[in-house]
Amino acid sequence: MDVIETFDRVTSWDGPFENSDMQRALVALESGKVLYFPSVSFPLNPVERAFLTPSCADGKSKNISYDPAEDAVHGAAAAGLERKRLTAMLRRYGDAAQEFLLGLMPGYRAGLERARTSFRPVEIKGRPSSGRKDDTRLHVDAFPSRPNQGRRIMRVFTNVNPHGQPRVWNLGEPFDDYAQRFLPTISPALPGSARVMQWLHITRSLRTPYDHIMLHLHDRGKLDLRYQESAPKTRFEFPSGTTWIVFTDQMLHAALEGQFVFEQTFRLDVGSLARPEQAPVHRLEYLTGRMLV
Ligand code: SIN
Ligand code: FE
Fold it and tell me: What is the pTM of this model?
């Protein structure tokens, strides 16, 4: 399957990794593929296993998230000692994911920012959601309130489902095809709107033309039901006890089914990529003929 690059020989988070695997990982990841590690799992200890229930989320959020800057979790129902243990579990996953990524792709170190960790204890299938928030529809990721300003969104996922249930994804067409399909429908942002949104704290920093386009690409695809129906897609099941890494700002993806996954988000400066010309910001600059950041 040409959207998945499999690494059978990698069995641990802390390496050491073979040079040939590191090379292959870098090329595949930056060309938009999913790096799939069928033998990298995240075994939970008995205390952590108690969190394998949807009731550990507060009911309002779809995920529990851990912010490394605050060393605190959000969206969790737990209090007191329970909350400390939940925080420690997410921190432990984030530490493992970061070590893994830096071991495999040491060239990313200078441009890498560890963002939020999430634990997703709610079954995706049948979960009520508005069209824009519905991750069962193909999309590229973009953050409305935290502009990336050209930087990449890279995510590490591990399925920890205790009943052997896979996480089922659809993977879509190449980024350029998707962008070309929807770019003609996206008007530029209103002049001055980026500053107003920052001033009103709708965004934490300036939403650049790049962010504007990425947000609209995210929404256009999700809200176009005919596209969702007819778009090229490949279904893939990530079994329990496996890990995968992908640039979710580049790879069209949809999560259809599954429960209990960890996810670590990283932001990466485009300058740290081995092939920056493949980054969405540079593809969109090429396709629009404009500077976007
Ligand atoms: C997504 O990034 O759209 C969701 C992925 C997942 O939770 O499996
Ligand atoms: Fe997504």
Answer: 0.97
